[in-house]
Structures are given as C-alpha cells and as structure tokens.
Design a protein that fits this description.
By secondary structure, the chain is mainly beta. It is built from no helices and eight strands. It has one domain.
Length: 98
C-alpha cells in the first residue's frame, strides 16, 4: 500500500481510510478518518454546533463538509470534525491480522 496525495485523488465519501498530516510543530500524524462532502453526513443532534447546514428541500440538517476523525473506540463521539489540519495524503486501511 502506498500513500496517495489528496491533490491527485480523494477517497470515496464516508470511507474510513488512514490519513496523514503534519502539525505546525512538525509532528507527523497518522489517524483514521473519512471525508464527507456537502450534505453527505446528516446531523441529528448538536454535535457540530453552529456549523450545521440546513437543507430546506428535505428538512434535514447536515454536518459541514470536510474530514472527520473516526474514533472507533470512543462511544460518545464516533466522528470528530477536523478543523485546522491540512490532510495531505491518505491510504486504504490494511487488513487486520489473521
């Protein structure tokens, strides 16, 4: 598996992948995340605060477009909106051990 540059190809909407970004202090970060486009991720509570987008056509609220960290082991917050991070690369998750 190789890293794919975001500028060359983006993963499918909502697909959990490994992502890479560098912090302002130069730390390399790899975590599991998914990208959701506009009106792709419904918001049924106040998890996203004022950032939600209301669609009158179908009377539904949507989370903002962008990257979401996938916190699989955190029951309260399964998806965490990632702001201020510039994801530069992604790759499919490896298969689990046998």
């Amino acid at each position: 598996m190789n890293w794919i540059e975001i500028t060359k190809k983006r993963p499918e909407n909502g697909k959990n992948v490994l992502v890479f970004y560098k912090t302002g202090t130069g730390r390399n970060i790899i975590l599991m995340a998914a990208y959701y486009g506009k009106h792709e991720l419904e918001s049924h509570d106040d998890s996203f605060g004022d950032d939600v987008d209301y669609n009158e056509e179908n009377d539904e609220y949507y989370a903002p477009e962008g990257w979401y960290e996938y916190a699989e082991n955190h029951e309260e917050y399964g998806l965490i909106y990632m702001t201020g991070m510039e994801i530069t690369h992604w790759m499919d998750k490896p298969l689990p051990p046998k």
